[in-house]
Amino acid sequence: MPTSRRFLQERESWFPCGQYRMRYLHLPSADPASRFRAAVVFVHGLMGYSFSWRHNLDFFARHRDVYAVDLLGVGCSDRPVPGSADFGLAAASSRLLEFLRSIRHSQIDLVASSHGGAVVMLAAAQDRSFPQPLIHRLVLVAPAHPFMTNARLRLAIFRTRFGRAVARSLCVHSALLRSKALGRMYADESRITPETRAGYAVNLDDARSYDYALEVVRSWRPDMQQLQRALPSIASVPVLLLWGGQDRVVSPRSGLLLRECFRDAQYFVLPNVGHLPYEEAPNDFNARVWRFLDS
């Protein structure tokens, strides 16, 4: 656990996951009417954590109860040693759903990015098995999904033992490579502030983060197959699919294929931003997402 002050430490709590703990933030709304509205829960991408939503949490907390999680194994949550915890998609989704059911809201809207998007889609499918499902709407920001063909080659390399070893060694020992990896998330690297680099250092400078990411990638193919089989069960869930027009990680065009899996789907591309539109264009992002959630 980092020894320096954590992002929004005064808002943090801990959710037990067996012998481990998952950190989450809670920003209660000051609006009395919020108790009649769905809570909003933010779920980060593969190498992100609750810090990723620093430009968004206060905005949505004006009118909703807001939460943001650090998934187990990354951010400020506990980091089990490799092999001691399951980081596959089904396990991550089950942990998230257990957390959602613990916060005692009758309805929840989920806003999720990248790998977190895959986690919440499968969590929504698991949620449909309950007599009273919690998950009301989904906002998926460049989510990982079964139709993202542009990523198949690099994922295949990272699934090999040699590929995992090389990737981990390079990332752990090369500050330049870590900086370039963060820059790839943005359309315009000049928008990356010193605060951004310092915040992401929680993950990027910790070798355990790469162990976590490689564990996630290890089961990627069967996980995406499982997600594809689960998508029909959430076809009726209203969803906003949101991409940055210059996303180099998950192709915006692949979102059109994912849109076909939902009966009530909106698809929107924010121009001139990359894989993290909530960071590069937070005002536009907040307005677009709020318009959807408040409709």
Descriptive notes:
- The protein has one domain: Alpha/Beta hydrolase fold, catalytic domain (Rossmann fold, 3-Layer(aba) Sandwich), CATH 3.40.50.1820.
- The model has no long low-confidence stretch (mean pLDDT 91).
- An eight-stranded mixed β-sheet has the order 1-2-4-3-5-6-7-8, sandwiched between helices.
- By secondary structure, it is an alpha/beta fold.
- α3 packs across α9 and α5 runs antiparallel to α8.
- The longest helix is centred in the N-terminal third of the chain and has 14 residues.
- The chain has twelve helices and eight strands.
Q: What's the average pLDDT?
A: 91
Based on the structure, what is the oligomeric state of the protein chains? single chain
Stretches where pLDDT is under 50 for at least 5 consecutive residues are none
Number of structurally distinct domains: 1
Provide the spatial order of strands within the biggest beta sheet.
1-2-4-3-5-6-7-8
Order of helices and strands: EEEHEHEHEHHHHHHEHEHH
